[in-house]
From TrEMBL:
It holds the Pfam family ABC_tran. Keywords: ATP-binding, Cell membrane, Membrane, Nucleotide-binding, Transmembrane, Transmembrane helix, Transport. It comes from Frankia canadensis. This is ABC transporter ATP-binding protein. The chain crosses the membrane at residues 20-40, 52-70, 127-149, 155-175, 239-264. Residues 20-299 form the ABC transmembrane type-1 domain.
């Protein structure tokens, strides 16, 4: 509990002056409130003697109004501070979530993380904004009320204390369970959000498979769990509230009963009885605030535990892995080639000459879990030209692109960009060197222009026009009612699959990367746009490097060089024609010798996506 309070207190860093000011105002208001029963006692005692000084009435009215003004100012400061804490916490959480390692993102549920950034942070705000101030001011109110009650009538105070202690035992028992119940409830809400996000993101698949009822049951199970946690919380609250009400009513009844007898016997004045009764109320009310603050803190600690669990997840580093100047790696030594390895005669002549390759893999090994996906692969991508990765499903082609984009780091070996080890580059610099067109071509909610300029928001109009033409989007823009400013819907649902593919290609081309990574760019294009894009890719390859995962034979034939992968190893490199002769594996993969094909003549695909 003490450690949890320390974590809550740490959230106030940068807001402690506001909290101190709010606490000071509330303390002053509490002190003003404690003085009021004494003035009431004076007024009543003076009234029994026939006169009431006007200054007493004025002082009492002034204290009452002053307390209202001070409490209002303190409450505003607390509310503003709470909103500031919530804003800062959400900014930190959003930044951390967006920078999580891809390996972590792939194993976490998006909806649950959204719930932590939304619902859980709100609960934490309630705990931070009010609880510390309430604890301090309530303790001051309790101490002040106890001191004055003992001064007025110590024996009557002991009777009130007995009533309060009976209620306190019940309340403490309930408080000890609130945090666990609250944490289970928040987890259920997170699970419900995650499953709802899952179903809505694939709503067409859900309906096409008539799975609406099953998804509703799945999501409803989380809602049921949240309901059960809410019922348990309601039970605990239903214990706390009557217990505190018992303390208030019991204290009032004891004071009226015993105090009335004392006044009747002349052992106490009517004014002292009224003052004591007010202090008894003042004692129980701060105690109620203490209990409420403790319950809120318990809920906040449960929510904070879920939020802090996100901050413990590893995130990508912003800087280079190595300090100091960029290091250039010396040329790789010649290694024995594996059996079945083939290389084109042109590449053999150019080996060791010319500029450093745009991308180079040296003995790279990588595994997502314990089973290696890449097994010591080495290859080069020249600064210009089109290189195609081919191979059967699971060969490791997509993994190569993910390593180049720094979504993952190799377990062994080196990846070089223009002779520089990527470990010596910041991720921003490395990702500025390359850009990726994913096969599923995600399109973001917003306008067509928002998606195209996503990587280069300040791109000039001429560059935008160029990528529109290059990706074959000019006709689409002219056809849309608002042109580039037409909304594309959530996940680009208002565009066809081929249109989304071309939008992704335009987006990747706009920042003009040195290396363009394409995960089967023609997968969702018709024959006309495929031929157009092939011509565009040929033009782009004259200026920069293209590394393409090739599925269609048209992409294979357009490549200057093929890299054949199988079971995480490079089996062969060369042109399509060379490999048909030199590599039996590639010949089997391509379905045997493939005669030249004209437009409109089908040919077998080389491989499925890995």
């Amino acid at each position: 509990m003490v450690r949890g309070l320390g974590e809550l207190w740490s959230l106030l860093r940068g807001h402690r002056r506001s909290v101190a000011a709010a606490t000071s105002l509330t303390m002053i208001g509490t002190g003003v409130g404690v003085l009021q029963p004494l003035l009431v006692m004076k007024v009543i005692d003076n009234a029994q003697h026939g006169r009431v000084p006007m200054w007493l009435i004025g002082a009492l009215l002034g204290l009452f109004v002053g307390q209202a003004v001070i409490d209002t100012a303190g409450h505003y400061l607390l509310e503003r501070t709470g909103q500031g804490v919530l804003l800062g916490l959400r900014h930190r959480l959003i930044d951390h979530l967006l920078r999580l390692r891809v390996r972590v993102v792939d194993t976490r549920r998006i909806g649950d993380q959204i719930s932590r950034a939304n619902a859980d942070t709100t609960v934490v705000r309630e705990a931070v904004a009010y609880s510390f101030t309430a604890l301090v001011t309530s303790l001051i109110g309790v101490v002040g009320a106890i001191a004055l009650m003992v001064w007025l009538n110590p024996w009557l105070f002991l009777l009130v204390l007995g009533v309060v202690m009976v209620a306190g035992v019940v309340v403490l028992g309930a408080l000890s369970r609130i945090r666990a119940v609250s944490e289970r409830g928040q987890a259920s809400v997170g699970g419900m959000t995650a499953d709802l996000e899952r179903a809505l993101a694939a709503v067409r698949t859900v309906r096409a498979n008539r799975a609406e009822r099953r998804e509703a049951v799945r999501i409803g199970a989380h809602a049921d769990a949240a309901y059960q946690a809410g019922i348990r919380m309601a039970k605990l609250d239903s214990i706390i509230a009557p217990a505190m009400q018992l303390a208030v009513q019991g204290s009032v009844l004891v004071v009226l009963l015993v105090g009335g007898v004392l006044v009747a016997r002349g052992s106490a004045t009517l004014g002292s009885l009224v003052a004591f009764l007010l202090y008894a109320t003042y004692l129980v009310m701060p105690l109620s605030q203490l209990v409420e603050s403790a319950a809120t803190i318990q809920r906040g600690l449960g929510a904070l535990a879920r939020v802090n669990a996100v901050f413990t997840l590893p995130r990508e580093s912003d800087g280079a892995a190595l300090r100091g100047p960029l290091r250039t790696v010396p040329a790789a030594p010649v290694r024995p080639r594996p059996a079945g390895y083939a290389v084109s005669s042109a590449r053999a002549r150019d080996a060791g000459t010319g500029p450093r390759p745009a991308v180079e893999f040296r003995d790279v090994t990588f595994a997502y879990t314990t089973i290696p996906v890449l097994r010591g692969i080495s290859f080069q991508v020249p600064t210009r030209g089109q290189v195609a990765l081919v191979g059967p499903s699971g060969a490791g082609k997509s993994t190569v692109l993910e390593l180049i984009e720094q979504f993952y780091e190799p377990d062994e070996g080196e990846i070089l960009f223009a002779g520089r080890d990527v470990c010596a580059l910041s991720r921003q610099e490395a990702r500025g060197w390359v850009n990726l067109v994913e096969q599923n071509t995600p399109v973001l909610h917003g306008t067509l222009l928002d998606n195209i300029v996503y990587a280069a928001p300040d791109a000039p109009a001429r560059d935008i026009d160029w990528v529109l033409s290059a990706a074959g989007l000019t006709e689409l823009v002219e056809r849309l009612p608002r042109g580039l400013h037409t909304p594309v819907g959530d996940h680009g649902v208002l565009l066809s699959g081929g249109e989304r593919q071309r939008v992704a290609i335009a987006r990747a081309l706009l920042p003009k990367p040195a290396v363009l990574l394409l995960d089967e760019p023609t997968a969702q294009l018709d024959a006309v746009h495929e031929r157009a894009l092939t011509r565009v890719m040929r033009g782009i390859a004259e200026e920069r490097a293209l590394l393409v995962i090739a599925h269609r034979i048209s992409t294979v034939r357009a490549a200057d060089q093929l890299i054949v992968l199988d079971q995480g190893r490079v089996l062969a490199q060369g042109t399509h024609e060379d490999l048909l002769t030199a590599s039996p594996f590639y010949r089997r993969l391509a379905g045997g010798p493939i005669p030249p094909t004209g437009d409109g003549v089908s040919a077998p695909a080389v491989a499925e996506r890995s």
